[in-house]
Amino acid sequence: METIQFNELNIRPEIIKAVAHMGFEAMSPIQAKAIPVALEGKDIIGQAQTGTGKTAAFGIPVLQKVNPKLKKPQAIVLCPTRELAIQVADEIRKLAKYLPSVKILPIYGGQEISKQIRSLKAGVQVIIGTPGRIMDHMRRKTVKFDNIETVILDEADEMLDMGFREDIETILRDINEERQTMLFSATMPKPIMELARMYQKNPEIIRVVRKELTVPNITQYYYEVRPKNKGEVLSRLLDMYDPKLSVVFCNTKKGVDELVADLKGRGYFAEGLHGDMKQTMRDRVMNRFRSGKTDILVATDVAARGIDVDDVDAVFNYDLPQDEEYYVHRIGRTGRAGKSGMAFTFVVGKEVYKLRDIRRYCKAKIKAQPIPSLNDVTETRVEKIFDRLDQYIEGQDLDRYIDMVESFVNEKDYTAMDVAAAFLAEILKNVQGKEQASQDDFGDTGAEEGMVRLFINIGKKQGIRPGNILGAIAGESGIPGDLVGTIDMYDKYTFVEVPREVASDVLAAMKNVKIKGKSVNVEPANRK
Ligand code: AMP
């Protein structure tokens, strides 16, 4: 798999900045193939599903070409449904975050037309709409195609299935022939190719070709989850299956950072690996993972390429991979060297279709599984405890303990069964108690990875400067000043970040301390 970084091509710095903000590490395979061709102005037929990054594959070239000063529609994206139109508009808006004068508007049936007319009048450069509603505006002459340079047919097969063919053709015939036309479709049936033949000029066909890949013998499960529950489901699976070493894959760098913070907050030993990290830092993370000091490695596809660890017990696709081949690469991190492995994949909403492609491509059995309930988690824990008991009963001399239990049973008039059940309850409480304790360990204070954000009830108005805060923390707690992170001062209070390892020492040291003669209160901050 060849990787192309977004800044390798001549793309507007504003777009590069937005892509970085979105946390994309490198182009997805369809982007790597389509963007360079699209930037040359050529017509494209792209075979790609939702979830492959196809929106940015056409969105970036569209934004590259748009003239922000010209307040007229310059690109039009046709979509089959209002949901898709909204989704595409959102994605392109994110890409245009640093191009404030480029206006993007979704227009679809069901929304008040007068509102759309007002927005169109205000000057919109990129229109994303359903064919029916766009035709409506054409008839009313509330949209003009004079300056349209790019047309995109998104999910073209769906649009044809929904009977939009005539509308699409009417729209295309009304737009300047000099335009660039890009057609994206998950499938390429005959009618699509006909449409391409009639309305495109020497289109380049772009699909991601792949080698046949064999999937090793790995137990593969998938879970249908809601985005906001992913963290919880992951932690239940980690508790249930208790893998020694796991690799968790996210699609973006931002996703990696957020998940690492979430897992740490839940008390797991997790670290992230992605392209923004310096090589020395990456080596350190890998060493800790190899030696088992870190149990969970959270990584992007690109960063994970160099991982050469043989005993990974489980791979989690926290985000569904953007490409079938990535799936195979990802899960190939486990089940190595003759060992067995497990792969867990999270699927949100429509991603099940992408999963279907992955299954077909890998000829893999990826079985649907219900999300484990807390009871399931407890049951598995109990099974594990029972497994461990075998060792005691078979291997150790328990006579001494049997005597103790016997006298307790006789003394209290209990049965041995009562006592065994009570022990089990006690052990479980202990395990859960430890988890709770580590969750209470400051939780998420909104700090950077590995840091805790503290709140201090004193600020600029009291004549305090960052140096005073730094001095007090370093002086009182004895930690080196350069370990103290960001200091954000407001009029009446201040936030300061300190490394997680020393946070409780700092809190203890700052009790009853005065800064510039004023008593202060320091406590862990709430999440931003
Ligand atoms: P799409 O196939 O356009 O529906 O995109 C699916 C998801 O992938 C969206 O959430 C995008 O923001 C995200 N995405 C697009 N390109 C990339 C990339 N190069 N790296 C990571 N995520 C991406």
Task: Kindly list the characteristics that best describe this protein.
528 residues, alpha/beta, seven-stranded parallel β-sheet, globular, binds adenosine monophosphate
Q: Could you explain the architecture of this structure?
A:
By secondary structure, the chain is α/β, with parallel strands linked by helices. Helix 14 (324-331) links the parallel strand 12 and strand 13 (341-347). It has 20 helices and 20 strands. The chain is globular. It has a 7-stranded parallel beta sheet with strand order 3-4-2-5-6-1-7, sandwiched between helices. Strands 10-11-9-12-13-8-14 form a 7-stranded parallel beta sheet, with helices on both faces. It has helices at 13-22, 29-39, 54-65, 82-95, 113-121, 131-140, 156-161, 165-173, 190-199, 230-241, 253-265, 279-290, 301-304, 324-331, 351-362, 374-395, 399-412, 416-440, 466-477, 500-509; strands at residues 44-47, 75-78, 104-107, 126-129, 150-153, 180-185, 204-206, 218-224, 246-249, 270-273, 296-299, 314-317, 341-347, 366-368, 451-456, 487-489, 494-499, 514-515, 518-519, 522-524. It is 45% helix and 16% strand. The structure holds adenosine monophosphate. Adenosine monophosphate binds at residues 22, 24, 27-28, 31, 50-56, 91, 251-252.
Layout: helices, strands, pairs:
Blueprint: H1 13-22, H2 29-39, E1 44-47, H3 54-65, E2 75-78, H4 82-95, E3 104-107, H5 113-121, E4 126-129, H6 131-140, E5 150-153, H7 156-161, H8 165-173, E6 180-185, H9 190-199, E7 204-206, E8 218-224, H10 230-241, E9 246-249, H11 253-265, E10 270-273, H12 279-290, E11 296-299, H13 301-304, E12 314-317, H14 324-331, E13 341-347, H15 351-362, E14 366-368, H16 374-395, H17 399-412, H18 416-440, E15 451-456, H19 466-477, E16 487-489, E17 494-499, H20 500-509, E18 514-515, E19 518-519, E20 522-524
Helix pairs in contact: 2-3, 3-4, 6-8, 10-16, 14-15
Bound molecules: adenosine monophosphate.
